[in-house]
Amino acid sequence: MKSKTIVAVFMLMVFWGQQGLSDRIVDMESEPANLESNKHCFSCHGERFYTFENEFSGSIERKAMNPNFIYNPDEFYQGVHRHFSCTDCHSPDYETFPHNAELRLDMMFSCMDCHGGDDTYAQYNFDLIQDEFYKSVHADRHFETFDCWSCHDPHSYRLMTRDNFRTAEIVSYHNQTCTECHQNPDKYQLVMDGEMPLLEDIHSFLPNYNLHFNAVRCIECHTSPQDTMWVAHNILPKEMAVKNCVECHSTNTLLMSSLYRYQAVENRSERGFFNAIILNDAYVIGANRNQFLNIASLVILGMVLLAMIGHIILRIIK
Amino acid sequence: MAEEKIYLYPIWLRVWHGVNAILIMLLIATGISMQYANPDYPLIRFDWAVSIHNISGIIMAINYVIFLPSNLATKNRRYYIDGLKNIVPRMMRMIKYYLTEQPKKLPSPFPVTKENKFNPLQAMTYSVVMVFFLPVVITTGLALLFPETIVKEVFGYSGIFLTALLHSAIGFLISIFLIIHIYVCTTGKKITDNFKGIITGYHHIHK
Ligand code: HEM
User: Fold this and answer.
1) Is the ipTM of this complex over 0.85?
2) How remote is the CA of residue B198 from the centroid of ligand 1, in Å?
3) B13-34 pLDDT, tens per residue?
4) Does A222 lie in the same domain as A152?
């Protein structure tokens, strides 16, 4: 039974691992295709202050930019849509300033408008992700105000698990996706009215809150452990969240089929099996077990017990 | 058959020892339970094990801080210092006694007296455990309690991992010590004699 599960997990790891190693579509090395033309938009939307010429008075005016409309060019050019021009997604009419107020009524693209049913992106399973998203608490309760863009910042979204990032970097980036909203009332209440519960209070059942939140992702506990998605998207109601420590703190830790699988395949060849992955980035009590030390300690224990039994026998026969 | 009592374990020592014994047993039980945590066979609920282990560990650290100066300040230190003199040949002699003479109930070459309560093996193991094992297990344990104090990476390995490895390795050796310690304590005249001693303070010498 046990060995079957191990084989199954192994197969899954190999399967997903190969998927993880597949080629990226976006060229992340070359210079961004629209670096120059985007400079115009970034001259205002990349700065805290912007200036423009007032056509009526002829004077130059200096104003503060709405902080929600400021984007970091470095992050934009590290994102998956780094070769885009702003006006690929926004109307070209934005070239003029002041922007035409009617532009606000423009329908924005959704991911699926461009990626849906396109085999080029088959490895990313967009359709499956959409189905999972529709089932999630966010979509279920707030369909009007919550969509893919709520988590995938159109101006900075990166692929962390497909490049060679360290586990800690993946954790930090993925968790930021959630905490940017769950620790920011301004964004949270853009979705709905109501008090934003403090993450630290909710998760007070975890000892070493900070250590855990730097070592595991929110989705480890808030999606189904059986989820076979590369990045699970079905955020479950809180009642179904993982609370049982042993789900992670044991040799068949759920982390192996989620967070650690991104690294699993590469590391296995270099450093030996399962443990190698955990070894490098975190120490998960109960999950890290060294086969050699296990055997060594059993042998020592056995010898001590044998010596004791021998001594007892000597004591009895005198 | 005359019986003589000598007062070997003063009250502070007995209290220290009792507290220490209970804590160590809790620590070993919860430590093993965490190390071999398994959802199918929960020994002790994981979060309880963590809490019990942490609290016991802190009390034990305080208890250790009491043990060390108490020994230095009282005459009890003498037993350790004298007991370690000329240690190697005396230990060999004691091992020979345990293997060949003691099972036959021959008298010990190092009888318990008011001046010398430890035989050489006791002096050696108690010293190693008290000045090496316990301090190491306590400091690594405290470090794991405040992981932000641990170096992040040593030669590419997680600092927490190395600390935890040392912690559990020494924890294992202490468990081995405890097994031997308790077993050796059963080799008094009567099996229960030494245990009564560490509770009442008096060691019985059967003549
Ligand atoms: C259930 C657990 C334990 C029992 C039943 C036990 C029992 C005893 C007994 C009977 C003695 C007297 C020794 C003798 O007369 O030969 C003793 C002494 C001693 N034990 Fe333990 N013990 C236990 C746990 C421990 C632990 C966990 C430690 C340290 C880690 C420890 C350290 C010592 C030391 C240092 C002495 C010598 C005390 C002195 O006279 O200065 N014991 N123990």
Assistant:
1) no
2) 7
3) 999 999 999 999 999 999 988 8
4) yes
